[in-house]
Amino acid sequence: MLRFKSLGSGSSGNCTVVESMGIAPMRILVDCGLGLKHLTSRLGEAGLQPEDIHAVFITHEHGDHIGCARSLSLRYRIPVWMSHGTHAAIGAPDFDGLLHTARDGTAIDLGGMRITPFTVPHDAREPLQLTCTDGSAKLGILTDLGHATAHVMEHLTACDALMLECNHDSDMLARSSYPPFLKRRVGGQYGHLSNTSAAEIARAVIHGGLKHFVASHLSAQNNRPALVQELMAEALSCGANDIVVARPDVGTPWLHI
Question: Superfamily for 2-256?
Answer without folding.
Answer: Ribonuclease Z/Hydroxyacylglutathione hydrolase-like (3.60.15.10)
